[in-house]
Each structure stands twice: as C-alpha cells, then as structure tokens.
UniProtKB/TrEMBL annotation:
The lineage of its organism: Bacteria, Pseudomonadati, Pseudomonadota, Alphaproteobacteria, Hyphomicrobiales. This is Single-stranded DNA-binding protein. GO terms for molecular function: single-stranded DNA binding. GO terms for biological process: DNA recombination; DNA replication. InterPro entries: NA-bd_OB-fold, Primosome_PriB/ssb, ssDNA-bd. Signal peptide: none annotated. Keywords: DNA recombination, DNA-binding. It comes from the Bacteria.
Length: 116
C-alpha cells in the first residue's frame, strides 16, 4: 500500500517570517479561520487556528524571508514530522509542519475581494 503524509494549508501570515541557521531555515506563522453556529444559542462562532510552517530548503527559506510579509495570503503543501529533544532531563515531544511547496497568493487567488 502506498502511503501519504500531506498537509495542505491555506491562510494568512500572522507575523514577519523568522530566520534560523543564518537564513538557511525559515519559520512562518500562518492563521486559518473556521466558523460554526452554536446549536443552543444559534450564535455564529469564529476561531483562528495558528500553524507554524518550517521551510528547510535554503532557497525556499531565502525567498520567504525576502518576499513574505505579515497579512500575505499563502498556500503550502507540507508534511507532518514528529520531533523530540531532551530538556532538563525530560524528553519534550512536538510536531513540525515542514513545507515542500510554499506560494504567496494574490488576493484574488485567496478568495478574498480587494477593497477598492
């Protein structure tokens, strides 16, 4: 059986990208929104989820650091990877979202109309 580890993300950059390892790696915080109607109160509820995307490809990281700004709509195809490290004698476990594809969208591509 063939397996797939694919996480597709479309959202907005929440803050300026951060450089690591002398700009060879970049991390971008991306906001995605979801909404639903509460069954009891019939109130519309909105929530923002934040995902930190890591770019390990040096060329992609350089592009992101130079061209991506807070508020930009983006599209990313990523893989999810487990991480662990030891801190103060305890193992700390986490999850990294690592981008294989990272594109900056125009406002039209993001489904958002430009206010004119």
């Amino acid at each position: 059986m063939r397996t797939t580890n694919l996480f597709i993300l479309r959202g907005y950059v929440g803050q300026e990208p951060k450089a690591f390892d002398d700009g060879k790696i970049a991390k971008v915080s991306v906001a995605t929104n979801r909404s639903w109607t509460d069954k009891k109160s019939r109130e519309r509820i909105e929530k923002t989820d934040w995902v930190t995307v890591t770019l390990l490809n040096e060329r992609d990281a350089a592009f992101v650091l130079k061209n991506v700004r807070k508020g930009a709509p983006i599209y990313a195809e990523c893989r999810v990877a487990e991480t662990s490290y030891e801190k103060d004698g305890k193992m700390i476990y986490g999850v990294d979202v690592v981008a294989n594809v990272f594109d900056v969208l125009s406002r039209a591509d993001s489904g958002e109309e430009d206010a004119a």
